[in-house]
C-alpha cells in the first residue's frame, strides 16, 4: 500500500506528507538491499504486552538481527519503540557479542507522538529525549532533527526509557483520578464538568487529560502502565499509584453497562446502538478500545447491535463479520434501538442532531460514556440521558 502512496491506517495529514516526500521515500521489508550504506536506523516496531504484563521485545530483536546481519558500515541504531528500562544497554551487549566487523552506536530516543495529531507532533515535538553515552550519536540525532537546543533532554539510556513510561503512566493516572472523582460526583450529586473546569484553571494542575469518561484504551496506555508495574516488581519495588490507576480503569471501562442494568436486567432481545468504536477520536485504531471491550460483553447476549463510527474501520468487519451491523449514518444506527451507548467523543457525534434519538429509537435511553452533550442541550428532549459524573435526565416518565 505504501508503495502506492496509500496509508494503511487513518492519520490526518499523513497521506499528504507521504505524497509530498514521495521521491525521498523507499519502502522495503526484510531485503538485504535495505541495509546498504545506511547511516542511521530507526527501530519503531511494536512492543506488545505479554500475558504477564511485560513488554514483548521479539520484534525489536528481529530488527536488530536484520541490521547486524546486513550492514555494510559503522552505523547508529535509534530505538524509538517504547522499551523497558535497561533494554538499550542489553541491545548494546547483544550487538557486542554478535557483531565484530562494525561499530554500532545505540541511542534511546522514545517517541511521544499522539495518534490523531502524529504529523504535527513529529514536526514540532514538545521535547526530544536522547539517552546515550555517545557524543557522536547525540550529534547525529541533532543533525537529523534540527531543533533548538532547549528541546533536548540529554541523558543516559535507562533514564530516557523511564521518562517514556513515567510520562504515559502519569497521563493514565490523571485519567483514572478524574474518573474516580466523577464517581464521587455521582454519589454527592455534584457536577464533574464544573469540577474539571475548576481544576483546569489551576496552571499547576494543567488542562489536559482531565476529562472523565469510560477510561483509557489504545495501544499504549494499557500496555505501558502494566509494563511499568511489571518493571517495578522485577526490581523488588512497586509503583502503587499506577497499580491503582490500572485497577480503576478496569472497572471504569464497563461503567455504562453497569448503568444500563438499571433499565434492563437482561440485554437479551434488545436492539443496541453504539456510537463511536475507536479508542479515541481522529484515529481508526481499535486496539484495546473501551468500546470494543463493551461490544464484546454485549455480544455475550442475544442482542442486535448497530455500530456507527465517523470513519470506516476495516478491521471491524474482518473481526465481527455478520455479528454486528456497521452503519454509516447516525439516524440509521439508532433505528428501533432500545438503548444507545456513546463510547467515543468524535466531533461528528458531539455535533449530531439530538432530535434523532427520540425520532428513531424505540426507547430513547442514552448512556454517554464520554459526556458528549451539555445537560442544558439534552434536557429539552424526550429521552433518558445518563453520562459520567453528572445528574441523570429522565424525560420519559
Ligand atoms: N502508537 C502510538 O501512538 C505510539 C506513540 C509513541 C510510542 N509508540 C511506541 O512505538 C512502538 C510502535 O507502536 P505502533 O503503535 O506503531 O505499533 P504497530 O504494531 O502499529 O506498528 C509496528 C510496525 O512495525 C512493523 N514491523 C515489525 N517488525 C518489523 C521489522 N523487523 N522490520 C520492519 N518493520 C517491522 C509491523 O509490521 C508494524 O507495521 C511501540 O513500542 C509503541 O509503544 C507508539
List the helices and strands and how they pair.
Blueprint: H1 14-20, E1 40-43, H2 58-70, E2 75-79, H3 87-98, E3 104-108, H4 118-123, E4 128-131, H5 135-145, E5 152-155, H6 157-188, H7 192-200, H8 221-234, H9 240-252, H10 255-260, E6 271-275, H11 290-298, E7 304-308, H12 314-320, E8 325-327, H13 330-334, E9 339-342, H14 347-350, H15 355-360, E10 365-368, H16 375-378, E11 384-386, E12 393-394
Parallel strand pairs: 1-2, 2-3, 4-5, 6-7, 6-9, 7-8, 9-10, 10-11
Antiparallel strand pairs: 11-12
Helix pairs in contact: 6-8, 6-9, 8-9
This protein binds nicotinamide-adenine-dinucleotide (NAD).
Explain this structure.
The protein has 397 residues and is of the alpha/beta class. It folds into three domains: 2-156, Rossmann fold, CATH 3.40.50; 163-252, N-(1-d-carboxylethyl)-l-norvaline Dehydrogenase, domain 2 (Orthogonal Bundle), CATH 1.10.1040.10; 255-394, 3-Layer(aba) Sandwich (Rossmann fold). It has helices spanning 14-20, 58-70, 87-98, 118-123, 135-145, 157-188, 192-200, 221-234, 240-252, 255-260, 290-298, 314-320, 330-334, 347-350, 355-360, 375-378, and strands spanning 40-43, 75-79, 104-108, 128-131, 152-155, 271-275, 304-308, 325-327, 339-342, 365-368, 384-386, 393-394. The strands form three sheets. The protein has a seven-stranded mixed beta sheet with strand order 8-7-6-9-10-11-12. Strands 1-2-3 form a three-stranded parallel beta sheet, sandwiched between helices. α6 (157-188) crosses α8 (221-234), α6 packs across α9 and α8 (221-234) runs antiparallel to α9 (240-252). The chain binds nicotinamide-adenine-dinucleotide (NAD). Nicotinamide-adenine-dinucleotide binds next to α2.
Amino acid at each position: 500500500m505504501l508503495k502506492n502512496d496509500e496509508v494503511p491506517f487513518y492519520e490526518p495529514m499523513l497521506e499528504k506528507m507521504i505524497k509530498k516526500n514521495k521521491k525521498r521515500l523507499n519502502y522495503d521489508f526484510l531485503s538485504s538491499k535495505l541495509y546498504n550504506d545506511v547511516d542511521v536506523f530507526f527501530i519503531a516496531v511494536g512492543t506488545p504486552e505479554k500475558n504477564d504484563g511485560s513488554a514483548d521485545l521479539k520484534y525489536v530483536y528481529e530488527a536488530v538481527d536484520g541490521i547486524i546481519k546486513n550492514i555494510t558500515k559503522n552505523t547508529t541504531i535509534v530505538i524509538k519503540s517504547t522499551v523497558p528500562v535497561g533494554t538499550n544497554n542489553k541491545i548494546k551487549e547483544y550487538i557486542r557479542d554478535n557483531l565484530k566487523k562494525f561499530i554500532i552506536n545505540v541511542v534511546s530516543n522514545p517517541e511521544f507522538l499522539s495518534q490523531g495529531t502524529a504529523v504535527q507532533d513529529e514536526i514540532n515535538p514538545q521535547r526530544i529525549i536522547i539517552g546515550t553515552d555517545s557524543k557522536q550519536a547525540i550529534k547525529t540525532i541533532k543533525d537529523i532533527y534540527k531543533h533548538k537546543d532547549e528541546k533536548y533532554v540529554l541523558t543516559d539510556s535507562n533514564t530516557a526509557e523511564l521518562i517514556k513510561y513515567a510520562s504515559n503512566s502519569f497521563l493514565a493516572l490523571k485519567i483514572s483520578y478524574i474518573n474516580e472523582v466523577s464517581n464521587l460526583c455521582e454519589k454527592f450529586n455534584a457536577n464533574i464538568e464544573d469540577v474539571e473546569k475548576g481544576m483546569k484553571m489551576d496552571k499547576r494542575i494543567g488542562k489536559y487529560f482531565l476529562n472523565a469518561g469510560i477510561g483509557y484504551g489504545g495501544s499504549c496506555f494499557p500496555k505501558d502502565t502494566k509494563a511499568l508495574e511489571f518493571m517495578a516488581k522485577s526490581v523488588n519495588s512497586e509503583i502503587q499509584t499506577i497499580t491503582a490507576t490500572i485497577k480503576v480503569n478496569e472497572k471504569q471501562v464497563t461503567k455504562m453497562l453497569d448503568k444500563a442494568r438499571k433499565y434492563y436486567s437482561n440485554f437479551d432481545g434488545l436492539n443496541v446502538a453504539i456510537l463511536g468504536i475507536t479508542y479515541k477520536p481522529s484515529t481508526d485504531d481499535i486496539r484495546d478500545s473501551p468500546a470494543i471491550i463493551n461490544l464484546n460483553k454485549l455480544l455475550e447476549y442475544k442482542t442486535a447491535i448497530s455500530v456507527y463510527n465517523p470513519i470506516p474501520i476495516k478491521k471491524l468487519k474482518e473481526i465481527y463479520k455478520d455479528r454486528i451491523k456497521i452503519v454509516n449514518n447516525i439516524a440509521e444506527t439508532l433505528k428501533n434501538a432500545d438503548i444507545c451507548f456513546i463510547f467515543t467523543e468524535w466531533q461528528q457525534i458531539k455535533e449530531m442532531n439530538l432530535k434523532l434519538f427520540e425520532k428513531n429509537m424505540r426507547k430513547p435511553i442514552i448512556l454517554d460514556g464520554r459526556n458528549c452533550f451539555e445537560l442544558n442541550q439534552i434536557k429539552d428532549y424526550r429521552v433518558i440521558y445518563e453520562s459520567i459524573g453528572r445528574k441523570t435526565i429522565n424525560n420519559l416518565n
